[in-house]
Specification:
By secondary structure, this protein is α/β, with parallel strands linked by helices. Helix content is about 45%, strand content about 15%. Helix 1 packs across helix 2 and helix 7 packs across helix 9.
């Protein structure tokens, strides 16, 4: 299948990054969100990201203009009707995602592939909300999307071999490295990462060390580019909690129980970098 147009639903941090990499790869993009201010914020983030790439001489000004010119935007799903490929990047909520895909199923042309950028929710469950479950797949980009090389390609129970092959090839055209995994809570990336972050939170809650000390041990001792508590703040503590809850429910194993301090911090609105306060403060 030739992918001439991609619809990205959700213009937040992940959505605008996904729209940008598709546009840079020469694909027409329709970027959609529920409110004009969300769309405007996403487009502004793309403009800033492209400007940084020009400054670093990774793109010419002409290439940046061409990429930006390939992105149309709006607040209605009708703009996705003629898309060949759809990427959903809305909030990490099963009911909201299923409702969105039911609606898209009536709007988007038959034969188009549906994908979700979910970081933990079952692709099989999401696919079952549509009448094209064989054309449904997980495409989990890493943050920041324009920089990170990995894309997890997640096969649901119903996903066809053809859909998987086409999605893998599409990821390669974006300059990404696709890695295929089967559908399970958290897939590979978050099944391994989130317990690490969670354990660092428990260590801090129990008074073993300060956030700075925990992060320094992991950076210098394990050669991690970013400490686990800094990374949790970067991801968003609400996102970390959501993923841990999916893991805890999905496996029924107490080792995935979210750290009580994490729960309290999210309740308090301390979400990390995006709220200005998490394990660290961001003035």
């Amino acid at each position: 299948m030739s992918v001439r147009k991609v619809a990205v639903i959700g213009a937040g941090t992940m959505g605008n990054g996904i729209a940008q990499v598709f546009a840079q790869a020469g694909t027409s993009v329709y970027l959609c969100d529920v409110k004009p201010e969300f769309v405007d914020r996403g487009l502004s983030a793309i403009d800033q990201s492209l400007a940084r790439l020009v400054k670093k001489e990774k793109l010419t000004e002409a290439e940046a203009r061409e990429a930006r010119g390939r992105i149309a935007s709006g607040t209605g799903l009708d703009g996705a009707a003629d898309a060949d490929f759809v990427v959903e990047a809305v909030l990490e909520d099963l009911d909201q995602k299923r409702s969105l895909f039911r609606e898209l199923d009536f709007i988007v042309r038959p034969g188009a592939i549906f994908s979700s950028n979910t970081s933990s929710i079952s692709i099989t469950k999401l696919a079952a909300a549509t009448k094209r479950a064989d054309r449904f797949i997980g495409m989990h980009f890493m943050n920041p999307v324009p920089v990170m090389e990995l894309v997890e390609i997640i096969r649901g129970l119903q996903t066809s071999d053809e859909t998987t092959r086409e999605t893998v090839e599409l990821a390669k055209k974006l300059g990404k490295t696709p890695v295929e995994v089967n559908d399970a809570p958290g897939f590979i990336s978050n099944r391994v990462l989130m317990p690490l972050l969670n354990e660092a939170m428990f260590a801090y809650m129990e008074g073993v060390a300060t956030p700075e000390a925990i992060d320094k041990v992991m950076k210098l001792g394990m050669n991690h580019p970013m400490g686990p508590l800094t990374l949790a703040d970067f991801i968003g503590l609400d996102v970390c909690l959501n993923v841990l809850e999916v893991l805890h429910r999905g496996f029924g194993d107490p080792k995935y129980r979210p750290c009580p301090l994490l729960v309290k911090m999210v309740d308090a609105g301390y979400l990390g970098r995006k709220s200005g306060k998490g394990f660290y403060e961001y003035p």
